C-alpha cells in the first residue's frame, strides 16, 4: 500500500543545501512503465528551476506529456544522478521510450544534485569499470 500526499509534512523541514526536497510539482512522483504496469518513484530536486528544466526536457524528448510517464531505464541502472542541464539531457537520451523491449526495467530514481555537495558522492569517478 503506497500512501501519497502523506509525505507532504516532511517537506516542511527542508534545508536549502543539506536535504533534497521531494518534488511534489512533478506529480508527486514519476511514473515508470513496468512491462505494462506503472510504478511511481520519488524525484528530488533542490530548485524549481532544475525541476522545470527536467520536466521541459522530458516533454521535449518524448514530445508528449503522456510519454513523460512512460519512459524507463535499463536494469543496469538503478538510479540516475543529475547535476546540470546537460546531465538531464544525457540521462533522457539514455532512457528509451516505451518500445518492444523484453528487458525488465529497474526502478529509476532521478536525483538532481545542487552545486554544494555535503554528503559523499554516489560513486567514485572510475573509468573503464569492467571493460
Automatic annotation (TrEMBL):
Residues 27-115 form the PB1 domain. InterPro entries: PB1_dom. Residues 97-131 are annotated as: Disordered. Pfam families: PB1. SUPFAM superfamilies: CAD & PB1 domains. Residues 97-107 have a biased composition (Polar residues). This is PB1 domain-containing protein. It comes from Lotharella globosa.
